[in-house]
Amino acid sequence: MQMLHQRHWCDGTGGNFSVVVQREPLLMLMAPSGVDKGSVLPHQLIVVNGQQHVVDGIGCASAETALHRELIQHAGAGSVLHTHSVQATALSQHYRSQGFIPLEGWEMLKGLAGITTHATRVDLPVVANSQSMEDLVMAFRPHIANRAHGILVAGHGLYAWGKNLGQAQRHVEILEFLLNVHSQQLLLQNR
């Protein structure tokens, strides 16, 4: 969390993170909601069950825990990281009507699980933001079925996941890098 915070990908109380502790019944280790993620110490993490109740620790589960549960149960994620970087937030709003951001030809694409060549295209999905977690879960489902590595929520931020915390962190880093490159490319095209 501190690395994500230091890179300004989860400033203030933004962002939420989970790691699967147990799948049956589901238990997730999470950062508590409403706190500065850069200052959370290991003993301040909470354990949340599949019904979004805190079963160990002090604090509240994020309202977005339902999205973590969906990605764990249907994408096979072992960890989910949700960031609020400037690039992801701005580009997600810019591409909201298109529904995806095309990322093509970049060497760093090979950092995403299953991609072995830069000669590929990844359409990073963008879904409309909603205060209804049920609506967001429904918006995520088609992209989970298409084996996405991440999903952008328009005007909100990035959800990325992996089979474990290391892979999820790598996917966040790669996607944030690619979003930054894409943003720079747009600026250069408009000169």
Describe, in plain words, how this protein is organized in 3D.
- The mean pLDDT is 93.
- With 191 residues, this protein is of the alpha+beta class.
- The chain has one domain (2-189): L-fuculose-1-phosphate Aldolase (3-Layer(aba) Sandwich).
- α2 runs parallel beside α4 (133-145).
- The chain has helices at residues 2-6, 65-74, 86-94, 133-145, 165-189; strands at residues 16-22, 27-30, 46-49, 54-56, 79-83, 100-104, 121-127, 150-153, 157-162.
Largest sheet: 9 strands, mixed
Q: In CATH terms, what is the fold-level topology?
A: L-fuculose-1-phosphate Aldolase
Distance between the termini: 36 Å
Overall morphology: globular
How many H/I helical runs?
5
Query: Helical proportion?
Result: 25-40%
**CATH class category label:** Alpha Beta
Query: How many domains, as an integer?
Result: 1
Determine the CATH superfamily.
Class II aldolase/adducin N-terminal domain
- Series of secondary-structure elements, N-terminal to C-terminal: HEEEEHEHEEHEEH
Q: Please indicate the percent range of residues in DSSP E strands (runs of 2 or more).
A: 15-25%
What structural category characterises the helix and strand content?
alpha+beta
CATH architecture annotation name: 3-Layer(aba) Sandwich
- Mean pLDDT across every amino acid position: 93
